[in-house]
Design brief:
The structure holds 2 protein chains of 2 kinds. Chain A is built from 25 helices and 28 strands. Chain A is an alpha/beta fold. The longest helix of chain A has 17 residues, at 5-21. The radius of gyration of chain A is 29 Å and the shape is globular. Chain B is 20% helix and 12% strand. The two termini of chain B are 24 Å apart. The radius of gyration of chain B is 19 Å and the shape is globular. The longest helix of chain B has 13 residues, at 164-176. In chain B, strands 6-1-8-7 form a 4-stranded mixed β-sheet. By secondary structure, chain B is an alpha+beta fold. Chain B has one domain (10-282): Alpha-Beta Plaits (2-Layer Sandwich). The chains are: A alpha/beta, B alpha+beta. At the A-B interface, strand 3, helix 4, helix 8, helix 10 and helix 25 of A face helix 1, strand 2 and strand 3 of B.
Chain lengths: 706, 285
């Protein structure tokens, strides 16, 4: 058939008319639009009745009250609890993201045993019997003192329960991770006598002189500090921040005083010297040789000398001291960053002595010397002969950092077994390789971790812990608060995985061991134990969710023993060589300790801190020497080296490299780990003589173009 | 224009002198609104953050450097002359985003959106985000999702809704109890989360609300620029790119001049002229 022009047009028109009239086109468009509106893979969260349940967050020492919003019993959101005596509404980002920890990809879902280099799942019965068996062998060998325990803190019933286990077992080797509260207790013990701690009445002070304390970067109880800081504007209170770097606290302060890294103690003592020489001090209850102290401090820490070490002009030091003394309610606050790691007793004691000289102890808006809360009463632990013998032995070391050093330095195993609870020393302590080496020298390590973190990976057996949302626990709020509050965390949801409250796991180990150890742990469950040992406050604690044990200005003027400072303890020197000083930075959106930051928190981290999988370090443009903003560089210290990106930032002293803490995790969680460098791999510890604290605030470093 | 006699006009003021840059508002927003997360969130252009905290500096060398953090939710523009023609609403071909004349809130209906992203181009505040991928939660994490906000899907735009579902809940409760809702009954998730109390949220049409007392919005058009309505009569308060006439309902407050100046772009010397003029336009208001 021949197609001429006429039939071509006819066919074409017919086809067009046919398509226009036919429902197929419309149908296809309709179908495709319906198809694009179908998302069967998008979750549809179940709806239901909304309820709010109170609990307490124990992710950090802040111990804020939280309110858990639930839909038909399913937790969907955590918010700050109004009226709670610590935070009174408001919460930090880590607490708000708390639900992500429940379903974290790196959670330990069931008890594990290490077989070669791999973990295999085992039952709770098997796990408990393995642990009990190993421990029984240690006792049979007559070396009960070779069982050690590392806990995250010393406060509350869980560390007390571990301590009790050691007592019944026969070992003095209980250690805590460095913490602000621990540092404050050590300072109080040095100056005011054992059993005390120090609180800072920030919300009533009109002049806060912060020696690098990250008041809005997670120092102390973060939300309480945020609130005290925010109210400055209405109260016309001043904040002076002494720090090498323009931290957020420095940025929000009325004045930022840049200082050479690590010389805060010199400045504090220099201010003391000015108060003494200008007779601006308050005659307090000083003991331990005040005359000698006065002479030593005025000689060694004269403004000109302090100018030389701190880099702050002598005239400014004198003016600062006078301003501090003349303020109505000044308070000096120690503890760089979060005040936990890399601190020294000299600085803490110097700052507290400054408070004492200014007459600020136990004054409104000043520093409170408070007794550590004693609300737990455990019955005497039963001890057999082995326990008695072991308990008489000397503790291996005075601090966890010294313990690691001693284990590495010894030919024979100092510890045959080690329990780790609520701590991640293989990530958090400096020179992590050193810590891992020490762990390898301990034949049997038991981890009570909720997550397969760096330390859990070094363990031989993991008894996985329920998270703070799945268990009961008393949560004492310490860490620099001017009051003492005990909170009660309650289970908000049944354990998501096959985990236990570590208290229950420990009780079961004790019972499996039999004898006097079992006798010392005669509770059925941890909950029963807590109710019994916290009997004094249990009624109000369980009904109200919290108990305020001490509040308000403590009475009396505490004694101040100046003998430690009068002896002029040596300052810790920075190790290594290089043009730069590398300092570790605390960033509110990351966590330097445990647990690691949540996916939500990591998401908020600036691209000037983490870029892709690279840590970004900050340096002043003046010391860039050819390094470009956003360019790559190699940072090297005597401890190791790493490839990083560079952020040129005017808010840091020339010659200083700022590197954030909390990155460089190596466990299996693609949202959180495998990002950046762990700054603790680049800085080695320097143990302060006397206190045993790791006082390394930084290390000398070089930075070269990659 | 539909204008109820008792229409609300929800807005907020952020005290930048109080903001600490801690990020609580960002996380509270993500948790409240089922915002997903990816393995790598460091490419900020595709990192969905309805609330984003920016860092501003005064640009001065050490040690005169100053830093301020600025939280940026959707600004809920009322558009030129306060008529509800927000930049994004005006360009949306699908009516997937709309202006609520009864609340002043700019909505976003995910299932209507077909992903043309005109609104993202129109938004002067980068407040809108596109879902380049389907959200993926690690196993089990769907368990914490809230039923009050639909999880989104690949190919749609999303943004801050001033936690509209919280308004709905409060309104329903008020309706059941036959009363108006109180100021504290409807607060956004960022406002309640802020540990520094830097955010104040409320109804700008209600003179009793704290936000109105702080902002003191001028009900009359700015004589210098009649497109600008609701300019603050508080000399410490400013809006972002105010001269565009977008009439945002998110106000910022700072004692520091350089911070207020950072809220817009100025020619050389222009700021000083404006600064001296600031507040004079409110004489008749």
């Amino acid at each position: 058939m021949k197609i001429d022009r006429r039939s071509f047009l006819g066919l074409g028109l017919g086809a067009a008319a046919g398509i226009a009239v036919s429902p197929v086109g419309v149908k296809l468009t309709d179908d495709s639009s319906i198809w694009t509106q179908n998302w069967p893979w998008t979750p549809v969260p179940e709806d239901g009745e909304i309820t709010y349940d109170p609990s307490v967050c124990s992710l950090c020492p802040g111990s804020c009250g939280i309110s858990v919003r639930k839909i038909k019993g399913r937790p969907v959101k955590i918010e700050g609890a109004d009226g709670y005596p610590v935070n009174n509404g408001g919460a930090c980002l880590h607490g708000i993201a708390g639900l992500q920890y429940l379903y974290d990809p790196s959670r330990v879902k069931t008890p594990m045993r290490k077989n070669g280099n791999r973990f295999e799942a085992i039952s709770w019965e098997e796990a408990i019997s393995i642990v009990a068996g190993k421990l029984a062998d240690i006792r049979t060998d007559g070396a009960p003192e070779t069982l050690g325990v590392i806990t995250g803190s010393a406060a509350g019933s869980m560390p007390a329960l571990f301590k009790r286990f050691l007592d019944a077992f026969g070992s003095p080797n209980a250690y805590e991770m460095p913490s602000l509260e621990g540092n404050l207790q050590l300072t109080a013990a040095t100056l005011h006598g054992a059993g005390n701690t120090i609180g800072f009445d920030l919300e009533n002070s009109d002049f806060v002189l912060s020696f690098g304390a990250g008041i809005i970067e997670g120092w102390g109880s973060p939300v309480a500090c945020f609130k005290a800081n925010a109210s400055r504007k209405e109260r016309h209170a001043k904040l002076y921040q002494i720090e090498p770097r323009l931290s957020n606290t420095a940025a929000g302060a009325d004045k930022w005083i840049p200082i050479n890294p690590g010389t805060e103690a010199d400045l504090a003592l220099g201010l003391c010297a000015v108060l003494l020489s200008k007779n601006l001090f308050t005659q307090g209850n000083f003991t331990g040789g005040f005359q000698k102290f006065t002479a030593v401090i005025q000689k060694e820490y004269s403004p000109t000398r302090v100018e030389a070490s701190t880099g702050i002009p002598a005239a400014d030091i004198e003016a600062l001291a006078v301003a501090f003394a003349k303020a109505k309610a000044p308070v000096a606050v120690p503890g760089k960053g979060r005040g936990d790691h890399g601190q020294n007793l000299k600085e803490f004691a110097a700052v507290q002595t400054l408070n004492a000289l200014a007459g600020r102890l136990n004054q409104e808006g000043g520093a409170f010397v408070m007794a550590q809360p004693e609300y737990l009463s455990f019955p005497e632990a039963a001890m057999d002969e082995i326990a008695e013998a072991g308990a008489g032995k000397e503790k291996i070391a005075g601090s966890v950092n010294k313990l690691i050093e001693d284990i590495n330095g010894s030919d024979k195993p100092l510890l045959n077994a080690l329990f780790v609870h609520n701590a991640n020393p293989c990530y958090t302590l400096k020179n992590t390789q050193r810590v891992k080496d020490a762990f390898k020298k301990v034949p049997f390590v038991v981890s009570f971790s909720s997550f397969m973190d760096e330390t859990a990976m070094e363990a031989d057996v993991i008894l996985p812990a329920s998270t703070f949302l799945e268990r009961t626990e008393d949560v004492p709020a310490g860490a620099g608060l001017p009051k003492s509050v005990i909170g009660l965390a309650t289970p908000q949801v049944d354990p998501v995985f096959n985990t236990k409250n570590p208290g229950d796991a420990l009780i079961q180990v004790a019972q499996a061991m039999g004898g006097t150890i079992a006798e010392s742990f005669e509770w059925e469950t941890y909950d029963e134990c807590l109710e019994a040992v916290a009997a004094d406050i249990w009624d109000s604690l369980s009904e109200e969710g919290s108990v305020v044990v001490a509040e308000g200005v403590p009475e009396g003027t505490p004694a101040v023993d100046v003998s430690y400072l009068a002896a002029n303890p040596t300052s810790v020197e920075m190790k290594g060589e290089g043009d730069f000083t590398l300092v570790a930075i605390d960033n509110m959106r990351l966590t330097g300790t445990i647990p690691a930051a949540s996916p939500f928190a990591i998401k908020t981290v600036s691209d000037k801190v983490l870029s892709g999988t690279q840590t970004v370090v900050e340096i002043n443009p003046a010391s860039a020497k050819g390094l470009k903003d956003g360019g790559e560089a190699i940072i090297a210290t005597e401890q190791g080296e790493a490839k990083v990106k560079v952020n040129l930032n005017e808010g840091i002293m020339p010659g200083v490299i700022g590197m954030v803490k909390g990155l460089g995790h190596t466990f299996d969680n693609p949202y959180v780990a495998g990002k950046g460098v762990n700054v603790n791999d680049l800085i080695g510890p320097v143990i302060e003589p006397g206190s045993g604290l790791d006082a390394a605030f930084g290390i000398k470093a070089t930075l070269k173009k990659a | 224009m539909i204008q109820h006699e008792n229409a609300h006009k929800f807005g907020m003021v952020v005290d930048l002198d109080k903001c600490t840059g801690c990020g609580s508002c960002m996380v509270s927003c993500m948790a409240e609104n089922n915002v997903p997360f990816k393995e790598d969130e460091t490419r900020k252009k595709d990192s969905i953050t309805w609330m984003r905290v920016y860092k501003l500096t005064n640009g001065k060398p050490f040690p005169e450097t100053e830093v301020v953090y600025m939280p940026r939710p959707c600004q809920h523009c009322s558009g030129l002359g306060d008529h509800g023609h927000s930049p994004c609403v005006s360009v949306c071909p699908a009516t997937a985003t709309d202006y609520g004349y009864d609340t002043g809130i700019v909505s976003q209906i995910y299932t209507r959106c077909f992903g043309c992203r005109y609104c993202m181009g129109a938004c002067p505040y980068h407040a809108r985000y596109f879902n380049w991928w389907d959200p993926k939660w690690p196993e089990g994490q769907e368990n914490y999702l809230s039923p009050n906000v639909s999880p989104r899907m690949r190919g749609v735009v999303e943004k801050c809704s001033f936690c509209y579902h919280r308004y709905q809940l409060a309104r329903e409760k008020g309706y059941m109890e036959e009363r108006e809702i109180e100021e504290n009954e409807y607060q956004t998730a960022c406002t309640t989360a802020c540990p520094a109390g830097a955010i104040t949220f409320g109804d700008l049409n209600n003179p009793e609300h704290e936000v109105t007392k702080i902002v003191k919005p001028d009900p009359h058009p700015d004589p210098m620029n009649k497109n600008v309505v609701g300019k603050s009569r508080n000399p410490k308060v400013f809006r972002l790119l105010e001269r565009l006439g977008t009439n945002t309902k998110v106000y910022y407050m700072s004692e520091r001049e350089w911070v207020r100046k950072a809220g817009d772009n100025y020619l050389d010397g222009e700021w000083d002229k404006r600064k001296n003029h600031h507040g004079s336009s409110s004489d008749h208001g």
